[in-house]
Amino acid sequence: MADTHPRPSRRGLAVAVVLAGLLLSFTALLPWAGVDARLDLLGAGLSQDVRGVDDPFGVYTLVAGLAAAALGAAGALRGRLLTALAALPGAAACVLLVVYVADPRGIADRVSVDLGMLSIEPGLRAGWFAALAAALAVTVLALLCLPRPPRAGSPES
């Protein structure tokens, strides 16, 4: 009986890992966090953004994305196991992104201040969320490249 569940091709998943790794590297250049100050008396506001590469965790995430892309490219040429190894930098990037948010050394920068007419609030920017999504995509796509054992009852080739 024919397999009714088509498997993605080896190169298709490897190319997807390469693209997700490059996207992860690109997101390190985007703003990850920022501080918004608003003065209600004048109705004006001020915003200061921090890019991912402005912090060591962002640089490590950039390197993890490049490593995942390199492993994906090597896997496209040599085999699925190399592509599956891209899950390691992808998972490391996920951890780095969580530590970036939970890092206690920057807690003074993350405290909100509301003095009536003046309010100062830190916040995450879209770049951090895009980096997390790309890191998760690298990890999941790379894990899909792991070789699966043959199913029971299926003919071995």
Q: Can you describe what's shown?
A:
The chain crosses the membrane at residues 12-33, 57-77, 84-102, 126-146. Keywords: Membrane, Transmembrane, Transmembrane helix. The protein has 157 residues and is α+β, with helices and mostly antiparallel strands. The protein has a single domain, classed as Butyryl-CoA Dehydrogenase, subunit A, domain 3 (Up-down Bundle), CATH 1.20.140. The chain contains five helices and four strands; from the N terminus they run H-E-E-H-H-H-E-E-H. It has a four-stranded antiparallel beta sheet. Helix 1 (10-27) runs antiparallel to helix 5.
Per-chain topology:
Elements: H1 10-27, E1 31-39, E2 44-51, H2 56-78, H3 80-84, H4 87-102, E3 113-114, E4 118-124, H5 126-143
Antiparallel strand pairs: 1-2, 1-4, 3-4
Please give the order of strands in the largest beta sheet.
2-1-4-3
Oligomeric state of this protein? single chain
CATH architecture: Up-down Bundle
Domain tally: 1
Characterize the main sheet.
4 strands, antiparallel
Q: So how many helices? A: 5
Report the helical percentage. Answer: 40-55%
> What shape does the CA trace take?
elongated
Contiguous low-pLDDT stretches (5 residues minimum) are none
Strand content: 15-25%
Helix/strand class: alpha+beta
Q: What is the top-level CATH class?
A: Mainly Alpha
Cα-to-Cα separation, first versus last residue: 14 Å
Radius of gyration: 21 Å
CATH fold-level name:
Butyryl-CoA Dehydrogenase, subunit A, domain 3
